Fold these 4 entries.
Entry 1:
Amino acid sequence: MSLTQDRPVAVVSARGARRWESGHPWIFRSDVAVPPKSDAGTVVVHDQRGRPLGVALWSPRSEISLRLLDRDPDAIIDRTWWITRIRAAESRRKPLESQTNAWRMVHGEGDALPSLVIDRYGDYLVVQLSSAGIEACRADIVGALAELFNPAGILARNDAGSREREGLERETILLHGDVPQEIEVDEYGVRYLAAPWTGQKTGAFLDQRENRHLIGELARGKALDCFSYHGSFALHVARNADHVTALDASAPALERAAENAERNGISNIDFVTADAFDFLRDRERDGTRYDTIVLDPPAFAKNKPSLPGAIRGYKDINMRAMRLLAPGGLLFTASCSFHLTKPLFLDMLRSAAADSGRRIILRELTGQPIDHPEVLTIPETGYLKGALLEAEN
Ligand code: SAH
């Protein structure tokens, strides 16, 4: 006898079912033929002939109505189920344990745990529950995390705007134990403070760890870190460069960067509060040259309509940075805009190089680190692109 009998059921169209078959976990409202007669939570999904397809998270108010959890329609989504799934995600991160104490333990759809993010900072966990369906599973998830990791605290950074589309409150709340305002992250021997309650994302930009290490190892001479935030790139670069200018439009962000430099006993960074566009233009005018440059701007394209303007912005800073490179100089450049796809990112760099008047070598393209898995059939899991460039002359 099937266990699905007394559980709420959603019936989906053939198009909805095909999405799952092609490896994407979302089914949109327009593909739900018969919605479940239940509140947000887990439901069994059938096709229109009554064939069970699996178990999903159900979000009654969202455009994304169903998110696939398990292809086994008899799966019971209890604490044990979450323990198994989270442990599988955690085991992929093993290689990071010798490099850092902070990583993304669960990257939502990328780890087959839709709308759930879990970041680990030392003994603490910061979670983001971004759908009504996952919110309904909160107690089991917190129970699973407590049992698996015995963390000193679990914080929910449920303050992202996407929660509103799900009919959920935006809030930052403690779910377990205690979580301090600041937690020290150790990343390849560089230490900096994450701010889990108030910092960007869940308190730090963990996704750039390997890129910081990459340019940090190669850095030399006179260096510039634009969009420095808390100085994470600058700290890595400062270990091998003679001198670093860390630039950001936010003075409070740079105060944190200066504290982080002190924490590492690093004294060859100066901090400049300025607009990166203006700064790059001015340095071009006065003929300054750098041996190492980092460009890690915020997402210029927040949505599709803003993409053309965003591309102009990316091209402008990249072209100017290329012009500022000394012969043999290195530029590490990144974009975290989901809408700027990998091909568009490369096109933008080509066009910047063409207009820079320099001969630019593409030394390396980087994607996401192992703790932010990008699944090929789920484009939404990928957003970060990076390139290491060298000016030949
Ligand atoms: N590189 C950082 C993350 C950068 S986040 C890291 O690895 O941790 C983006 C930063 O860009 C923010 O700190 C924001 O204050 C800054 N910023 C946004 N627009 C800017 C501009 N026009 N000029 C300079 N900084 C800007």
Entry 2:
Amino acid sequence: MDRKRVLILGLETSCDETAAAVVENGSRILSNVISSQVELHARFGGVVPEIASRRHLELINSLIDEALETAGVGTSDLQAVAVSYGPGLVGALLVGVATAKALAYACRLPLVAVNHLEAHLYANFLVEGRPNPSLPAVGLIVSGGHTELVLLKRPGEYMPLGRTRDDAAGEAFDKVARALGLGYPGGPAIDRLAARGNPDYFHFPRAFLDGESPYEFSFSGLKSAVINHLHQLRQKGEEIPLADLAASFQSAVVEVLVEKTVAAAREHKVGSVFLSGGVAANSSLRRVMEERIKTQLPGVKLYYPPPELCTDNAAMIAAAAYHHYRKGRFAALDLNAVPQLPLNA
Ligand code: KG4
Ligand code: ZN
């Protein structure tokens, strides 16, 4: 297949963001429309699956219209329709999958099935004019639902190195934020508050799981330690140093994420490290990872997407789809949602 102009419409409905985007050649964003349901779910402290699916259904068609209009293209200009088919909430994923299949059939376009986790990694390819990052790379995907360390050998070829045994990193941020009374989603609130706090004020436990499973993660012990400490302070009637608590919690999460990512990059002798997923927007994670790679792995390049491409979006779906398109890897119209889809499926 030659490198002609390939326009792909991407759809994303795996959790609480409804999104549609048009991307050219896997790197140039022509439109990237997102409708977040955060406010709808905020009063429940987390995503309510039935509400998410219903809202996706209400929004998806108008978001597709808006994405095409903003990009200045019609369906006849597209080369493919791409959709994330897992992992995620089954009812939510089904809205995107059914819509993409209907569009592909009606417009006679090939359908590309994209793994949502793979797409998070490809958010790092969405920089127009910059050469693509070199592979192999180590990727850290940290979001509300996932904490995965992977080796990207070639486009479409992944080796999972480790994942969380319990809470995802973003989930820990959200739960600690809730205990601190900071609302949902908690990650950005903790990030802001921690900037005014002392990260060494409290020493919370870090689960390195050395030896047995060096690339696995565990955040539930840390989360419980922070929440228990908070309760003790409240019981004693002491003033709660919220910013110091936030900063000390955040530094424990960041230290484990950075240590393991750097160790994996060293072991696998990669030239690039990718951060992706909502937690990759965390300012401390970016800063510490940058410093540690600079001093410990000279020559290795760190990539992270701008904050709006860290969290769920459809541009990353279209970017990942481009590599499948070029290899002619298309899905049949009986494509189904796969809520537990692993990365190397
Ligand atoms: O990738 P994403 O939008 O959705 C999932 O696929 O889960 O990630 C959302 C998660 C939430 O847990 C949110 O608290 C976290 O990313 N997050 C952050 C930051 N911004 C978003 N966590 C820490 N620091 C941030 N700045
Ligand atoms: Zn995600």
Entry 3:
Amino acid sequence: MMELKSGLSAFVTGGASGIGKALCIALAQKGIYVTVVDFSEERGKEVAALLQKQNIKSQSGLKVPSAIFVKCDASNKGEVAAAFEKHVEVYGGLDICINCAGIATSVPFFKDQTDGSRSWRHAINVNLVAVIDCTHRAIKIMESANKPGVIINLSSSAGLYPMISDPIYSASKGGVAMFTRSLTPYKRKGIRVNALCPEFIRTDMGEKIPPRLIDIMGGYIPMDTLIQGAFELITDESKAGACLWITNRRGLEYWPTPAEEAKYLLPSSKMRKRISSTVPITTAVQIPRSFEKVIVHTLSHDFRSATSIIRAPLKLPIESGHVLLKIIYAGVNASDVNFSSGSYFSGSKEEIRSRLPFNAGFEGVGLIAAVGDGVKNLKVGTPAAIMTFGAYAEFVMVPSKHILPVARPDPEVVAMLTSGLTASISLEKAAQMESGKTVLVTAAAGGTGQFAVQLAKLAGNKVVATCGGKDKAMLLRDLGVDRVIDYKQETIKNVLKKEFPKGVDIVYESVGGDMFDLCFNALAVYGRMVVIGMISQYQGDDGWKPRNYTGLCEKLLAKSQTVAGFFLPQYAHLWQQHLDNLVHLFSVGKLKVAVEPKSFVGVQSVADAVEYLHSGKSVGKVVVCIDPSFSQQSAKL
Ligand code: NAP
């Protein structure tokens, strides 16, 4: 989170009136030095004087004036260059540039009989060309100082959809929006360019809009709302190339929505290659009379001795409202051993034992093999996922509402189910993750950890991740982790103490035991720790033993901290939405999915795979290929 604090400097074009003036005042109230840039000398000087007066008390003893005025026609490149030079000369750098200068077209386009130099060409010059010029100059200054900076360009709602009364204004503001959205690559250099797209605000320009139109739009937007939007774009470090649409009807809303964006964003080159070799899935799935599955026959955290493989009859016809899914890949989870020991069922030991035998496996992807009566919109041959018990099987029959349609029956998609969804939903709901924070992830190169680190990075956070081993550390660096702590090489406690003395804001913790204590002690004031699991405790000699946390309440109270639990089955209502988002991020190349390279084939290999996960050697998501013949066919798809 970039902090709006004294010592920063801002350059605001069109700063003498309307939105520009309001932003100058709001920035100065935060103690920020402001250069008011405007065509109008009289009003510009007035604003600069007002800011100086306002800041006398808060910044007494300043060596530089808290605000200056520079007369400048934003469409005159020589004057613009001189204005930026003046700003850097006085304030020694540039942190914030707000390109606010804008005009309506003086002669309506459809009545214009001139060559446009004084009307529409001029409007394009002020509204668009000048914004490009100022953005370009601001970027150069920020780049040469090698410091982060933010540029806010004033577009308009008329830059997002047509404004029939002033097509030139709409064209110029549309240009500003698209120009801004195309500048996301500068984020890598710490320079973020964003656009504000408000509907009507009561300014000199806004006053000229017919009152009837203002009424239809729900009235003028309060200036405070606009300032709130501008500050959000400046402080939120995840925002780059963002267009913030501001209306009275819907408040602050980013444009386009992720769903709209998904329609035009092209997949990454890797995905494109795969998609280009895609053929439609027409494979009819042969339905055998019986199939193999893994069942739990004895309650034990030792998965191998708790389970066996049985052959079960495939009962036809398919029950009404149900779907038969042919499983191609099943996902392996740390908690398979908790399930086999009965820990996830409530009731007395006897009641739990009475459930035996029960089916094992939490998740899988495959193809729909058959549908029962009354099932609409799901067709045989469609790739789908399930997150219900019984996925360690060649076939699963489930109520159709449990089917999650997916684009491809791939191992990467299996990884996005329990592992990906746990990270995605818990970081949003339990961690209440925003941006600009420090996020610590444990077992970070594992099934769910790999998603947590990437989602935290994508949201604009600094990410610290723990793992045991060089291969895992390499993966985490490749995923963009800022500080990888390989506990086989370094002591986690020492690194945290030395490099993060103020603590970390969010912990995504799944190891438990001593690791919980260590992470909890590294939590900052107001910090949130999400308990995802406690893999180190699952397999003691007598199984999972609850641990005592002496003094937990006292420590939480002393630092206003939160420890939040998260259990994925309780968030089933969010699965499809979050899965679609993960698949989208993956398909556009923003998310990588690591699948453990060691292959496990057939239901016979499930126990090996579960033990391998618990050996601590696995990197990424452990997946069992239940049917290799189908996996080869689907790989060609
Ligand atoms: P995973 O992270 O792929 O698990 C393997 C990793 O955990 C290992 O590579 C190792 O990483 C670490 N580990 C394994 N055994 C350990 C031990 N005895 N002591 C310390 N570390 C050990 O597994 P996962 O399926 O994704 O599950 C990770 C955690 O998330 C588990 O605690 C699981 O229960 C939890 N989970 C919770 C939910 C939920 O809804 N709350 C959902 C899914 C998963 P390093 O050595 O590199 O640290």
Entry 4:
Amino acid sequence: MSGITAPRGTFDILPEQAGPRAALEAAARELLEAAGYARIETPAFEATELFARGVGESTDIVQKEMYSFDDGGGRSLTLRPEGTAPVCRAYLQHGMHKLPQPVRLYYLSSFFRAERPQQGRYREFWQVGVEAIGSEDPALDAEVIVLLAALLRRVGVRGTRLRIGSLASPGTRAAYRDELAAYLHAHAERLAANVRERIDLNPLRAFDSDDPDTRAVMAGAPRLLDRLDASDAEHFATVRDLLDRAGLAYEVDPRLVRGIDYYTRTVFEFTSDALGAQSGVGGGGRYDGLIEVLGGPPTPGIGWAAGVERILLAAGEPAPSVRPVDLFVAYEERRGDAFATVVEARAAGLAAEMELAGRTLKGQLKHADRLGARYVAIVEPGAVRLRDRGAGTEESLERDAVVARVSAS
Ligand code: AMP
């Protein structure tokens, strides 16, 4: 072995880890498709400009977390750091505004961010996400939030907490940003250096700081939730009311800011006590201005993304879900007959395997035990001995009767 290992912050998905992932994917597919969401997958890389414009130049993602490269022809491409901007790009590119609105989409894809790797934070990670585009009805906000809660519950994520907030409309937020920036400048000497440097670039991010002095300053900062205009306030009140009607518990968090510029109005985040420092399981919000920023007509939208690895961590270790083998086909000479039997068995929907490692017949039977095979077919000239391992019985059959016999059991 040359000593080459996977890059820092990346991971292999080994066969024993594939089962829980597949179960999560199946749960997501079932739940989301039943609610009218259809699968979409976009390319792993896009024009860098899509994220610069869509996610926002002032965000951490665009400032320092993107894997960008030249396509060889002078054009900058970027491995996708998130899914919303690409899905909105696809919505526009394929004229989905002509479909009945809202268009409901979901994805299950990997994303790339040049972050400092730690438990639950990787440089390539997977997200399941939804985007519902073309309606500003607050019932859609409540729908997507309830769906994420249902998914987390269904896959057994423990200790979840839901926080919601409103980031208002762009005009209100711009006025609030100025008010907040003025407040931060007035308290600049007590702020952490990295917060102070970003006062004018992105003052809202000051709410994310872990620095105790900064947090003390932020406790007295003006709150955007107190500045909502009448229609934003009504939208937010309706979302809360609908969540109440769905019986979903939440906390209103006036300091909930998300590290992406496109959000408007509703934002939300699910955390789990079962996780350590990286407690965010999934979150999202409205992005009523995003499609316009990407060159389309004014089109509202809302979505969320949840980290697959975080969900699996927060759901704890499930029992390994290896498919049990229905039939193991052993043989000494009749490889062709054994092979034909396995092919027939698989075509009939059975989980079947044959000997492939040159074991003695005794070794093959031991291997069948190890696999937990329900039946072992020992293919011999003229006939097959079929053992029911559970019952401890054995019968002799014509080779072409074996599959029907096992299928019927
Ligand atoms: P975001 O797209 O930043 O809103 O993140 C949505 C969710 O994706 C988070 O709540 C995490 O569960 C997950 N996530 C984000 N960044 C990472 C990362 N670097 N590694 C693993 N999961 C991540």
